[in-house]
Every structure is written in structure tokens, then in C-alpha cells.
């Protein structure tokens, strides 16, 4: 056999220590010991159990060892084997064992086995230390990563990643500190106008870019001692340090003007605006309450129209509660089927005959009675329920009109469309599917959209109206003349009808100026090959004047009031007015 040198033992030690765990080290040691000592069997025993075996099944060796006489091992299929073992390590101690046929181990071989066992013990101790250090390092790295993640999450909770501004959490902390001092602190609650239209038409990336630009302009309007924050979505807040209400107002208007200027987003100029509510508090005021008061004032500002600033007043709390109650009742009305439709005929002014009807929604609120559309539709537009209400109106009116057309084939149906529906990319598909379900031809339907909705985002309007026009439905501009119309866009909008707002004939007997405006609109419509409908015809004088001006159709109490569905067929049996 080969005799090992100290150098060879060092190599054995290094080879065993290369293993990353005890099992691999023990297996390698058993293999090397069996090879060097030319043994048929090698093993390591720990706690009187075979942990690793070479040359024989471990369980078989486990059973045979207790029955083996001193230094002799009998195994099936093998001659009797001479065995020798050497102990290593601390408790629980282990043994490195070999067993071979023929001559037993001589003293030099036994000495070599003992040296190998001691070397294995040292290697296992080293591996245990390295494993403990590795586990400690991994634990520290894990704890460090957890601390970093915690710091990051705390930062994200306190700073908005999109704008870099403080979040609501940090804003309230700073506000609470300011409210511990006697000096007044004012809060501005800012809500962007027309932001959703940008998001829907240009995409969320453009919307995020816009929010970053808004934050930059907001910073430019503030002093170093003031704090701007992004509260969420398209809502921002500003803390004005040591500032009373009368001083906060000019700051709010400065922000309004800054946000009115165009933003360059996705290669085009984008116009938005803002509505701002102001609330002021002093020492002892609750931060959440003060921010809530500014929020309530902001809602009043939005109700008054875009680009407004409103200062909080205590009475507004009652109004806010009433709005919450109205919202809940509105949702219940939709799910419980409490809405109904009336129909106002469209009358040809030259013949006095009805040619179509406009669907008008009505709501009888329990405990309150009839709520006018102006009392709940703006709220529905604001909270998004208008899309569900619009779908209900279109389907209900469509089914009713399809039944009427079985005996009145010339009857047409006008249905109002909201701004929220117009920016929905699936709106045209919804209209097409609904009309198909109702069995109502698209050519029998005219969708009415207000001038202000169309002009707020003309590009989106043109795209949506083109999709609707491709379906074959008619399109009308409602309340024409009251918005901020553009003749260039009017030429591009694929519409069929102009509905002249009632404001132009609000006097019982129209003045020369009133008639001049209406004559201009009628001549414009003729040039663009559009039919005209004048709204609010309440007197015989108005009727005669509108007919002389050449208006095609009219609506109003003098011609015919809104009627119940069962009364519609009778309205088509003959002229309603001479």
C-alpha cells in the first residue's frame, strides 16, 4: 500500500474542507479512506448509527455492526472483513471506519486512519464555524434588506414617487405640528379639472407626466416655508405657513393661473385647470378636520364651475352630508329601478306635427319627491354613476321606441349623452350592442351632446363622434351657443343637428337682438347642412318668431309638455299645434 505523508494529509484536509456542508465532507472522507487503505467498506458512525457508507448499503451495515465480533464483520456476499475505526470530534463523537478482506490493518495503517479521523474532525469543526458565520452573515443581510425595505416603504408612504411631493401622511404630520402654534395656518385643497380626459385620451403615461409638471408649477407658486403635497389621484394640497384666509386667497388664484397655462405633454399642448378650496385653522385645530374642511370647500368650487376658489364655511358640512346621502339614494334608485322616463316630442314648426321624441329622465326620491335632473345628474357625472344611468336610459328608451315604431315607423328617438360616456373608448360598441338588443335601427336614434362637453376635448370628441357616425346614429349638439364653441371644430364635428339653447328666447317676446343671434345660428346651420331645433318655446309669439326665422324643429311647453310613455302614440295622430 501507499504510505501517506504529512503533505498528503494536508491535501486530504483541504479536499474535505472544500465541501460546503458536513454531509459532503463526510462522504468525501469515507471515499478517500477506503481508497487509500484498499478497503471494501468505509463508513462514518455518529451516535452508534451509520451516517455514510461506501461499498455496502447503509441500512445493511447498520444491522450488521452490533452483531459483529471484535474487529470482524460478516456481510452477505463478502468474505469476513477486518474492521478498524478511529474516533474524531467532540460530543456527539463520531468514528471513521474501514473494513477490508485479507490482512488486518497494520500499525502504520491504523495510525494513518487515526490521522485521517482527526483531520476529518478538524474539517468538520471548520465547516461548522464557516456555516455559522455564513448563516449569521445571511441573517444580517436579510435584516439589512428588511430595514432597507422598511425605510423605502416609509419613504413611499411619506413621499409620492411620481411627483416627489409629500403624501397625505406626511402632509398631515407637518400640518399637525403647525397647528400647535398660535399663528394661523391655511390649507388649499386642489383638484385638477379635465385631468381624466387627458388620461383617457393620451394614456396613463401622459397622465403621470402631466402630474409631474403640475407638481413643478405648484412648487413655483409657494414660499420655502410652505408645503405642497399630492393627496391622491389628481388631488393636491398646500399648507401655507403663518397665513390667514385673506392672504391664502391670492395664492390660490396664482395657482389657478399657473395651471391654466398649456402643458406640453406627449408632443402636444394640453389644457387643464383646477378648483381650489381654502380652510384656515389655528392652535388646537385638528389636522384631519382642517384638510377635510378644505376638501368640502373644493367640492363647492367644482360645483360652481371650473377654475373657482371657495373659502370654507361651517354650513358647507351640512351640504357635504346631504351630498353623501344623495349619492347613496341615487345608487339605490339605480339598483331598485326608481328612475322613469318622460318623452318630449320634437315638433316640425312648419306643420306642427311631432316627428320624434326626446327621452327625459325623472326621479321621485322617497321622502323628498321629484328631484329635477339638474339636482342629481351633475352629481352622477362627478361620481361616475352617469355611465350606468346613461346605459339604462338608452336601453329603456330604445326598447320603448322599438315598440312604438311598429305602428309609427317614422318616429325617431333623441337620447342625451354625458361627457363621461363620450370619453369611454367602448361607448360606440355599447351603443351598437344596445340598439341591436332593442331591435332599433341606428338611423332612428340621435344622440345629444352638450357644446361644452364637445369643446373641452375636441380631438377626443371628433374621434368618438366619428365612431358613432359610422354606426349610423344621428348626432346633435345640445344647448348650442352657451359654451365656448369654435367654428373650425364645428365644421369638423360629424353632427347632424344644432339645438339652440332656450336662453336665446327666454323673453316671452324675443327682442331684435335675440332674433339676430338665432338668425345667425340658423344661417350657419344651413351652410353646414345641419337641421336646427330651438328649445324653450313657451309662447305663441316665440313659436311664430322661430318659424319665420326658418328653424326646422321646436320643443317647449307651448308646443307640447313632456308626456308619459302611454301618451306618445296619440301625439303622432295629427298636428299638435297650428
TrEMBL record:
It holds the Pfam family EAL. InterPro entries: Biofilm_reg_signaling, EAL_dom, EAL_sf, GGDEF_dom, Nucleotide_cyclase, Rev_trsase/Diguanyl_cyclase. Residues 183-314 form the GGDEF domain. It comes from the Bacteria. Residues 323-576 form the EAL domain. This is Diguanylate cyclase (GGDEF) domain-containing protein. Coiled coil: none annotated. NCBIfam families: GGDEF.
Amino acid at each position: 500500500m501507499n504510505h501517506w505523508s504529512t503533505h498528503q494529509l494536508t491535501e486530504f484536509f483541504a479536499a474535505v474542507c472544500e465541501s460546503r456542508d458536513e454531509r459532503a465532507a463526510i462522504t468525501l472522507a469515507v471515499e478517500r479512506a477506503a481508497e487509500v487503505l484498499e478497503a471494501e467498506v468505509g463508513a462514518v458512525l455518529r451516535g452508534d448509527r451509520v451516517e455514510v457508507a461506501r461499498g455496502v448499503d447503509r441500512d445493511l451495515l447498520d444491522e450488521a455492526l452490533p452483531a459483529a465480533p471484535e474487529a470482524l464483520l460478516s456481510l452477505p456476499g463478502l468474505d469476513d472483513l477486518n474492521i478498524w475505526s478511529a474516533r474524531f470530534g467532540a460530543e456527539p463523537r463520531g468514528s471513521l471506519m474501514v473494513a477490508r478482506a485479507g490482512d488486518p490493518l497494520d500499525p502504520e495503517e491504523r495510525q494513518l486512519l487515526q490521522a485521517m479521523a482527526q483531520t476529518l474532525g478538524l474539517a468538520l469543526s471548520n465547516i461548522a464555524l464557516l456555516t455559522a458565520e455564513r448563516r449569521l452573515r445571511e441573517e444580517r443581510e436579510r435584516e439589512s434588506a428588511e430595514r432597507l425595505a422598511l425605510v423605502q416603504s416609509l419613504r413611499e408612504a411619506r413621499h409620492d414617487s411620481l411627483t416627489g411631493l409629500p403624501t397625505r401622511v406626511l402632509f398631515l404630520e407637518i400640518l399637525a405640528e403647525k397647528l400647535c402654534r398660535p399663528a394661523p395656518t391655511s390649507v388649499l385643497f386642489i383638484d385638477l379639472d379635465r385631468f381624466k380626459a387627458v388620461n383617457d385620451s393620451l394614456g396613463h403615461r401622459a397622465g403621470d407626466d402631466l402630474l409631474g409638471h403640475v407638481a413643478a408649477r405648484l412648487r413655483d407658486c409657494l414660499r420655502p416655508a410652505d408645503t405642497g403635497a399630492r393627496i391622491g389621484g389628481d388631488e393636491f394640497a398646500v399648507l401655507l405657513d403663518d397665513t390667514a384666509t385673506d392672504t391664502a386667497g391670492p395664492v390660490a388664484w396664482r395657482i389657478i393661473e399657473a395651471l391654466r397655462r398649456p402643458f406640453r405633454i406627449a408632443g402636444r399642448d394640453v389644457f387643464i385647470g383646477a378648483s381650489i378650496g381654502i380652510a384656515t385653522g389655528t392652535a388646537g385645530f385638528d389636522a384631519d378636520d382642517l384638510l377635510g374642511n378644505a376638501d368640502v370647500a373644493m367640492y363647492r368650487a367644482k360645483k360652481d364651475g371650473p377654475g373657482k376658489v371657495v373659502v370654507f364655511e361651517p354650513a358647507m358640512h351640512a351640504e357635504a352630508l346631504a351630498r353623501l346621502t344623495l349619492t347613496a339614494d341615487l345608487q339605490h334608485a339605480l339598483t331598485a329601478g326608481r328612475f322613469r322616463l318622460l318623452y318630449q316630442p320634437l315638433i316640425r314648426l312648419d306643420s306642427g306635427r311631432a316627428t320624434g321624441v326626446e327621452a327625459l329622465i325623472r326621479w321621485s326620491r322617497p321622502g323628498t319627491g321629484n328631484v329635477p335632473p339638474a339636482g342629481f345628474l351633475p352629481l352622477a357625472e362627478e361620481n361616475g354613476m352617469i355611465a350606468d344611468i346613461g346605459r339604462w336610459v338608452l336601453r329603456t328608451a330604445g326598447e320603448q321606441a322599438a315598440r312604438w315604431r311598429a305602428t309609427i315607423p317614422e318616429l325617431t328617438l333623441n337620447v342625451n349623452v354625458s361627457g363621461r360616456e363620450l370619453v369611454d373608448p367602448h361607448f360606440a360598441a355599447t351603443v351598437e350592442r344596445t340598439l341591436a338588443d332593442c331591435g332599433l335601427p341606428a338611423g332612428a336614434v340621435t344622440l345629444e351632446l352638450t357644446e361644452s362637453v364637445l369643446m373641452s376635448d375636441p380631438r377626443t370628441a371628433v374621434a368618438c363622434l366619428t365612431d358613432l357616425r359610422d354606426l349610423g346614429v344621428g348626432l346633435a349638439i345640445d344647448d348650442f351657443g352657451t359654451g365656448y364653441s369654435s367654428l373650425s371644430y364645428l365644421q369638423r364635428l360629424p353632427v347632424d343637428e344644432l339645438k339652440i339653447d332656450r336662453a336665446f328666447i327666454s323673453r316671452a317676446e324675443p327682442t331684435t337682438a335675440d332674433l339676430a343671434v338665432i338668425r345667425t345660428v340658423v344661417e350657419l346651420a344651413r351652410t353646414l347642412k345641419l337641421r336646427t331645433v330651438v328649445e324653450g318655446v313657451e309662447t305663441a309669439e316665440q313659436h311664430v318668431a322661430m318659424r319665420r326665422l326658418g328653424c326646422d324643429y321646436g320643443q317647449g311647453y307651448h308646443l307640447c309638455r313632456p308626456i308619459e310613455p302611454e301618451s306618445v302614440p296619440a301625439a303622432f295622430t295629427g298636428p299638435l299645434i297650428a
